[in-house]
Amino acid sequence: MNGKVGIGLRRDISKEILESTVLKPNFLEFAPENWMGMGGYWNRIRKEAVEKYPVTCHGLSLSLGSPEELDWDFIRELKVFLDENQSSIFSEHLSYTKSRNAHLYDLLPIPFRKDAVDHVVDRIKRVQDFLERPLAIENVSYYTPVAAEMTEIDFVNEIVEKAGCKLLLDVNNVYVNAFNHKYDAREFIGKLPLDRVAYIHMAGHEQVAPDLIIDTHGQPIIDPVYELFEWTIQKMDPVPVLLERDYNFNEIEQLQSELDHLKSIIKTHWKVTYESPEGKTSSAEPSGVHMATENKDIT
Class of 5-284 per CATH? Predict the structure, then answer.
């Protein structure tokens, strides 16, 4: 799937995805919590999606930063789900979503502290050991740091190194945080271990004040985020790229245009082959821009 462009399987657009009338992703991302234990119609939709597309999974409730013990009943069910759906990647947010076992339904920031690093690293290692696969952690958007004793970049990098995990690079989240907290987005990405990136998320956001952007996943990607994406992929080997959209599905053609735009950027810098709707393939050689490593064939 390296270099391919996917979208999240949402119930609102499942018909459009599976019937392939307009929306034509290369792979699908499942949020396991939205599909685990489902029967009937939606279980049939999930099975059909797995038959037609490669799958990655992006978790919502592992809550790596919570102080209480990991939810092992959930993790056992998760392992079965990942195996059943042949998920090539499992990712989670570098955040916490539960407190005293109550679901908070939000991605809250973990304090940038050494003791938090040790706590999260231990939890990641135990989850990886049990799932028997690496976990990719996502850099999250946040609106205020909590009791920070180190920088965000040092916090993320230390966790990835010590846990031996992968990284889910959300380019939009970097843009949002850089804007809100007034740092340089390219400098931040340049300091990440890009060789550990399992895949990339791209999404839209909403600017609600002159000095505040909210990460919404409900709007089209803006040009500066596309530009940051293009700058980023020149520094790394090909990985899968996902378009995140959580709502505002009224214009399916607009979603497909975003997928196409991402593909056009990718084909400029990575050697990728895509299948056309007729089953034919088209490919493009990279334009010769400087790469940190050699381009790889995508099969």
Answer: alpha beta
**Tokens found for residue 191:** 């300091």
Best CA proximity match to 75, nearest among 85, 63, 88: 63
Of the candidates 215, 207, 264, the one whose C-alpha atom is nearest the C-alpha of residue 241 is 264
Supply 212's token pair. Answer: 């505040």
* Residue in this structure with the two tokens 């990985």, named with its chain if needed: 239
Judging by DSSP bridges, how do beta strands 212-214 and 206-209 pair with one another? antiparallel
pLDDT in tens, 100-115: 666 655 677 899 999 9
Are residues 65 and 95 in contact, defined by beta-carbon separation less than 8 angstroms?
yes
Asked whether 106 and 66 are in contact (CB, 8 A), the reply is no
The Cα–Cα gap between 101 and 157 comes to 28
Separation of alpha carbons 45 and 53, rounded Å: 12
Domain boundaries, the chain: 5-284
For Cα atoms 49, 242, 46, give the angle at the middle one, nearest 5 degrees.
15
Q: What is the pLDDT of residues 98-153, one digit of tens each?
A: 666 666 556 778 999 999 999 999 999 999 999 999 999 999 999 888 878 999 99
Beta bridge partners of 28: 7, 55
Q: Which two tokens stand for residue 272?
A: 């990728």
Using a cut of 0.85, tell me whether the model's pTM lies above it: yes
Q: Beta 55-58 vs 281-284: how paired, if at all?
A: unpaired
- Condensed to tens digits (0 to 9), the pLDDT of residues 73-82 reads 999 999 999 9
246 φ, ψ to 5°? -100, -20
Contacts of 37 (CB under 8 A, 6+ apart): 77
